[in-house]
Structure formats: C-alpha cells, structure tokens
Amino acid sequence: MARKxxxxxxxxxxxxxxxxxxxxxxxxxxxxxxxxxxxxxxxIVVFGxxxxxxFAIGHPLYAGILGFVLAFLAMAxxxxxxxxxxxxxQMEGQPGAAAAVLENVRGWTxxxxxxxxxxxxxxxxxxxxxxIVLVGEGNPNRLRGLLAAEKKRMARTVADAPVHDFVVGxxxxxxxxxxxxxxxxxxxxxxxxxxxxxVNDRLRALGDLMSNMPVPxxxxxxxxxxxxxx
Length: 230
Hints:
Blueprint: H1 2-31, H2 35-57, H3 60-91, H4 97-102, E1 109-116, E2 122-128, E3 131-137, H5 140-155, E4 163-168, H6 180-185, H7 193-206
Parallel strand pairs: 3-4
Antiparallel strand pairs: 1-2, 2-3
Helix pairs in contact: 1-3, 2-3
C-alpha cells in the first residue's frame, strides 16, 4: 500500500510541475515575445554542433545522445534566466518588490516593512550570516533618514552584528532590483549560526512596524453608543 501511495504521489507531482513550467512560459512570453525562439535556437545549435563533432570523430550516436542532454540543459538555463529577467521587469516599481526578492533568497530571515513613512517609502530587514541588511524602497533622499533611524533603533540591541544598507533603484549608488539577490549573496559571511539566531531573537523582541502599531484592546463593540432617542 505504501509503495502504491508513493507512486501516486510521484505521478501527481509531474503534471503539477509541467503546469508550473507552462505558466512561467506564458508569463515570460508576455514580457519577452522571443523567448520561445531563443530557447529553441539554443537547443538546436548545441545539439547540431555536438552531432557534427560526432560525425567528425566517427561516433554520431554517442555524440547525439550527449548533444541532446546538453541541449536540454542549455535550454533550461537560458529559459530560467529570461524568465527571471521577465519576472523582475514586472515587479520593478511595484510596492514590496524588494521584500519579495529577499524572501526568495535562502539562508535569510526577512521582515518586510520594519520602517515606513507617510510617503510610502519603506525599509525591509534581512538577517543572515552576513549580518543585518536593511533594504529601502522609495525616494532615496527620504530613505536616508529612514535607514539612519532604523540603524539607531537597532544599535543598542545588536551592536555586535554588522549592518549593511541598500537602496533599490537605478540611480547612482543604488542597487537594481534584478541585482539585489546577487548583491546579498556576495556579502561576506561573518556570523556563526548560533549568533544569527540570537540576533533574530533580539530583533524580534525589539519589534517591527506592524507589531508596534497601536491596536485597540478588547473586542470591538457591536451596539451603538447610548444616547437620547428622539
């Protein structure tokens, strides 16, 4: 019975994966209309080159099999990169885009919107082995104050952890959204796992924007206020 259940589960996963790939392709094609031609062209070129080499050395069958495998791999890599570029293109300029990118980077604990102002400029926080990273979205001039205030708020609590800050954008000194993940991964890992956990715990105790917002205590009343009926 257990073997049958495992087989059914594996079979159910394949259509779901194919459906996900199809959805990704449709999304990518809306932004990048040539994605199909480019991916197919890469596959044909790789397969054709290896097959030609196979005929030249007298082993077309083996070269053809190798060419098919490498062509499929090359197509997957090219498609993945173009799909990622298309996704960033759709996300760019949207509120919370940087938080979405951060949450898809492994090894980091992300807290969106730890600071925000009335102009909707926002600061997100990520904690990992490289320390604390503050990522700002919005007007760069206004974000300087938000980032400085957030650093000051954390200073006494996590003084032993390095703090990095980035502003997402296309201007000078800013980090483009599509390069945010790469920038994060290039930071030097200086904290052991136990210290990362301790920093996360201290920051959690410090609170964030959402937990510090005043919320009325007790259940909301459903009856109208008392008064004279006329």
